[in-house]
Design brief:
Largest sheet: none
CATH architecture: Orthogonal Bundle
Number of domains: 1
Bound molecules: zinc ion
CATH class: Mainly Alpha
Number of helices: 12
Radius of gyration: 19 Å
Shape: globular
Number of strands: 0
Strand content: under 5%
Structural class: mainly alpha
């Protein structure tokens, strides 16, 4: 719940700190590729002892959670990181195929079966059609991959800018004015480049995602 609160607060900050000239491109009204970057970045803060110790206190004794307890909690959340990543990749590919030029003679269940067997270590169960209840395939319409893309960018920003000192005022101000202030008024790639001081290549993005699964 704390992680979720931080996540949603990332979206809130994106809107509150927006200073765009036009209201229709303010805050979260930006490219879907970038929309989850500020929120996913906040999840890194939610999993950091230096941040959590500022607010997670016992309501009577005012004691903070012990550092090793927080470390264990964070480690347990990462237990199936590689499998979760694989599932996200599988969903993204399925979403691309459903909205791309898929062979029309095949049913969505046949396509699902082929893609799941190829990209997930949990094989398709014949006769099942869970994709019919997976609303993201409709709501996101070929943009499901943006979760992974946003995670890769957020991971790069966290590791390069905040990991050494998440409470740095200078970095926070830079993040505010280089990234959050512009909403959808500027190309997301330009915002990221200004923050990181370099362009992110596809290899950089893949490496950032791989690092996520290797950390624990
Ligand atoms: Zn979100």
């Amino acid at each position: 719940m704390v992680e979720n609160l931080f996540h949603e607060f990332g979206h809130a900050m994106h809107s509150m700190l927006a200073r765009t000239r036009y209201q229709h491109v303010t805050g979260t009204r930006c490219a879907t590729d970038f929309a989850e970057v500020p929120s996913i970045l906040m999840e890194y803060f939610a999993n950091d002892y230096r941040v959590l110790s500022q607010l997670a206190r016992h309501h009577k004794t005012n004691q903070t959670l012990p550092e090793d307890m927080i470390a264990q909690l964070c480690a347990s959340k990462k237990q199936f990181a590689a499998f979760e990543m694989q599932t996200q990749v599988f969903y993204s590919i399925l979403d691309q195929i459903f909205h791309g030029e898929h062979p029309l003679k095949k049913s969505t269940m046949e396509i699902l079966s082929e893609v799941q067997n190829q990209f997930s270590c949990i094989k398709y169960v014949p006769g099942t059609a869970w994709h019919l209840r997976f609303g993201h395939l409709v709501g996101y319409g070929a943009k499901y991959y943006s979760y992974l893309l946003s995670r890769a960018v957020a991971s790069s920003v966290w590791h390069q800018c905040f990991a050494a000192d998440p409470l740095s005022r200078d970095t926070g101000e830079r993040y505010r004015w280089d990234m959050l202030a512009h909403g959808g008024g500027r190309e997301p790639a330009v915002l990221v480049e200004n923050m990181l001081g370099k362009k992110l290549s596809t290899e950089d993005l893949v490496d950032a995602l791989l690092a996520e699964t290797m950390e624990h």
